[in-house]
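Tutorial handout. Part one gives the primary structure; part two gives the three-dimensional structure as tokens.
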Amino acid sequence: TAPRPSREQARSQGMIDLRPGAPWVRDHDRAAWRRAWRHAAEQPLDEDPDPRGLPRLRALLADHLRRTRAVRIGPENVMVTRGTGNGLDLVGAALLGAGTRAGVEEPGYQKARTILAARGARVLPCPVDHDGILTEHLPDDLTLVHTTPAHQYPLGGRLPVPRRERLLAWARRNAAMIVEDDYDAEFRYDVAPLPALYGLGPDRVILLGTLSKTLSPDLGIGWIVAEPPLLERLAAVRHDLSDRTSVPVQAATALLLERGDLDRHLRRMRLEYARRRGLLIDLLTTRPVGDTAGLHVLLPLPADAVAPVVAEAAERGVLVDDTSRASHGAPTVHGLVLGYGSAHPADLRRACAVLNEAVARHTGHTA
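Part two.
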């Protein structure tokens, strides 16, 4: 398979990039942004920064998560990371090794498989349905399982409360840890957000979050939420690895939180993403699924139509992902994974027209 263009290459070639994972980064409050970085530049440098992060930022994040994710935590539960990937890697370094087994949703987050395998674990695919992970299919000998209960990636389901309780019962029965990846939980549309799984079972859940979808991946700020003894273990591992989050970046983020700039930006972007999501639903002739939250939807297609639709769309200047990129082996669910976070509404309209024609051509349906 030929390498696909980077996002920068796609932009330079005038392509519309609907691959998932990228937010809209061209509409932030520039005055707030400049103020935050001036504040960061005025802070003293630390020759040996705390691996858990700046105390002030940890307290602000704890307050943010209490309000937005309904978890009762304090700064002693929070470690500041560079994002969910960095957080998962630290969890893997602390809990995994040769001979361990880790579960990842199937289909699921490809980078999670890569990260956990790199930490020595044998990674096992764990089946999901339209609601999320199927607890009855979980093996009993996993050290941990990585899951996306707020908005399953890529199918878009949210794990119902009874199944959350069964997942926690499985973890307690097997002394396993659940890694709850809260990668885009801030963005909900037609449904009220469920509280984080962590709140139901802090003894068995590690919560990972990030500001990469809220502000920008370039910021490089995320968090791990865990019980204090485990957090101290993670901090020791992090210190040994010389892994750290930039202190100036932490200071800038702290000011954005403290002044309410982040909350205002989040409210504004919720409205903007809801508008783009509405465009997709209105314009696509095939009804997408998984559209109640997040920044992507799944467009189901017959298995034999996926590759030709992806290829035709690319030839006509529209880049999309398909479920094969989220699958451990041969895909069990077939379709396109469409990210709408970073695309201008006018580009979304053009892309939908291209996709409708390609889908009609390769499925025999009328566009």
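Part three, for discussion. The first strand starts at residue 16 and ends at 17. The CA atoms of residues 84 and 208 lie 6 Å apart.
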